[in-house]
Design goal:
Strand content: 5-15%
Helix content: 40-55%
Distance between the termini: 14 Å
Largest sheet: 2 strands, antiparallel
Structural class: mainly alpha
Order of helices and strands: EHHHHHE
Length: 74
């Protein structure tokens, strides 16, 4: 199995943004990352995330990492 298909981590950024009435652009500005980088994360194409970015996202969305990320069953 290729490495990009080897993980089952799901990102719930779109749901959290919708629940908070926030756009991806607004979050990017608040967190200090590009919209493109957040889009990669939101669309499940990210291969990694820095803890500092994860912390900033959780701070701005008032959530915990487990609200943002989950592992789907095999």
């Amino acid at each position: 199995m290729p490495p990009e298909e080897g993980h089952r981590v799901e990102v719930h950024l779109d749901r959290l943004l919708a629940e908070r009435g926030m756009t991806l652009s607004e979050l990017a500005t608040r967190v200090g990352v590009t919209v493109a980088n957040l889009s990669v994360l939101k669309n499940g194409r990210a291969k990694a995330i820095r803890f500092s970015t994860l912390t900033a996202i959780c701070h701005e969305l008032h959530c915990q990492p487990g609200d943002l990320l989950s592992v789907r069953e095999a």
